[in-house]
Design goal:
Sterol_Desaturase_Related; transmembrane helix; membrane; Fatty_acid_hydroxylase; globular
């Protein structure tokens, strides 16, 4: 899709190379900058109790690389189908109109949130956790490097709804590109343990910090409505005030 805009032939090899380079560049750029800002340059302000663990960081980076490349490999059939015109992704707003563009964006959010919540719940069953998700939960207290540190099948399972939507419903191309890129940004934001936004209906950083600490709360991606409905929501502000977790974990 992007290759076509750049005038590069959309062969499977070109797609694989481009997506791998783009994914790794995005990971090391976003996670690296976030780590420098919050855990190195701004350590005294944001994480004064943080003790650098280079072994843990290298392990997170290793799984970040494995997860990124593995996800590209597993997603290749979808990218090939999209490039060959076998999805419902479109580029002309006039084809479906502004009404559908706006409605489809909200439908996209509900669809992906629902799928990812339940996929995440499965990943916390004994089988899903033992096979796949335990690698991401090696870090009970996270840093920015953990943002993409997943087993490839875990990464694939949680990314799949974002790509699947465009095969089920008409989806405007720029929305697709922006959202699949934004997911990487969001993943870094919810693992850096710095909560700039504290809206209770948004699954902001504090929520995901508690998810890594307790394992069985706050499974959502962008929102908390499924957690609230299913009784798996834990409020970061309440946890912070109650002293349930050590000082410095929640920010």
């Amino acid at each position: 899709m992007i290759l076509r805009l750049l005038g590069i032939p959309e062969t499977p090899l070109n797609q694989f190379v481009f997506l791998t380079v783009a994914g790794l560049t995005l990971y090391f750029t976003l996670s690296g900058l976030s780590y420098l800002i919050f855990f190195v340059w701004g350590k005294e302000r944001f994480h004064p109790t943080y003790l650098p663990d280079q072994q843990a960081n290298r392990n997170a980076q290793k799984w970040g690389v494995i997860g990124t490349i593995g996800n590209v490999v597993l997603m290749m059939p979808f990218h090939i189908l999209i490039a060959s015109g076998h999805s419902q992704i479109y580029w002309d707003i006039g084809e479906y109109g502004w009404g559908w563009l706006i409605a489809s964006f909200f439908l996209y959010l509900v669809f992906t949130e629902t799928c990812i919540y339940w996929a995440h719940r499965w990943l916390h069953t004994d089988r899903g956790y033992h096979w796949l998700h335990k690698y991401h939960h090696e870090w009970r207290v996270t840093t920015s490097w953990v943002s993409m540190a997943f087993h490839p099948l875990d990464s694939f399972l949680q990314a799949l709804p974002h790509h699947l939507f465009g095969f089920i419903f008409p989806l405007y191309g720029p929305i697709y590109l922006v959202m699949v890129s934004f997911v990487s940004v969001w993943s870094v934001m919810i693992h850096d343990r710095v909560s700039f936004v504290r809206f209770k209906w948004i699954n902001y950083t504090g929520h995901h910090t508690l998810h890594h600490w307790y394992y069985d709360y706050n499974y959502g991606q962008f929102f908390t409505f499924w957690d609230r409905l299913m009784g798996t929501w834990k409020d970061p502000e309440v946890a912070e005030k109650s002293g349930e977790i050590p000082d410095g974990v929640l920010r």
